[in-house]
Design a protein that fits this description.
single chain; 118 residues; mainly alpha; two-stranded antiparallel ribbon; 3 helices; binds zinc ion
């Protein structure tokens, strides 16, 4: 039997961890509901071209990190929303129960081990 309370706690924790990380690098766009990376706060005005290039690289890194984290956050939010539904813990492909150990390790999992690749 799936321990939904434990799973919920784990999902909440993962959500908070992801949000913490994302808040460091960007902000939620209230209009679109999407996360945008933001450039690092300037402590002093850019003095030369090298600084500008560094800042641009840093922003690129943030953006790519954001693109990795955002789908994870959405997945966690979705799992939280669906936690009490009949379909929770079922593989999206074969509709069978996802292995309990797998779900407990990764509550946002949407497929069984067999369909992991897809
Ligand atoms: Zn499956």
């Amino acid at each position: 039997m799936l321990d939904k309370k434990k799973i919920k706690e784990k999902l909440e924790k993962e959500k908070n961890d992801l949000l913490e990380e994302m808040k460091d690098m960007g902000k939620l766009n209230e209009e679109t509901g999407e996360w945008d990376a933001t450039p690092e706060e300037l402590e002093y005005p850019e003095s030369d071209e090298n600084d500008k290039a560094d800042r641009f690289e840093d922003f690129e890194a943030r953006s790519s990190m954001m693109r990795t984290l955002e789908p994870r956050l959405k997945n966690v939010l979705k799992a939280l929303k669906n936690l009490n539904k009949e379909s929770f813990g079922k593989c999206e492909i074969c509709k069978k129960d996802i292995e309990t150990a797998r779900l407990e390790a990764n509550p946002a999992a949407r497929t069984c081990k067999k369909h992991l690749e897809n």
